[in-house]
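Explain my protein.
***
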Amino acid sequence: MIAAYNDLVVEALDRAVPRTFEGVPVRVLSLEHLMAIMLQTNRPKDRERLAMLSGNEAVDMERLNDVLSRHQLVDAWKRLNRIP
């Protein structure tokens, strides 16, 4: 469960995909939105998870860059990945 506490989370929830888990309907956030939320939250465990996900083939970098741009997180992403 996640509370809609800012525009990024509201967007992530709006675009979540309906699924069923053990017979229970759920909505699943995209990996790219989850990564943006982790970047925004910036806890040590989130930074570790982002480091593990960076370069993973499952990440749609175009979609991630789009989300990061809309929510002013591009600079934070660059700092995290030490990109000039």
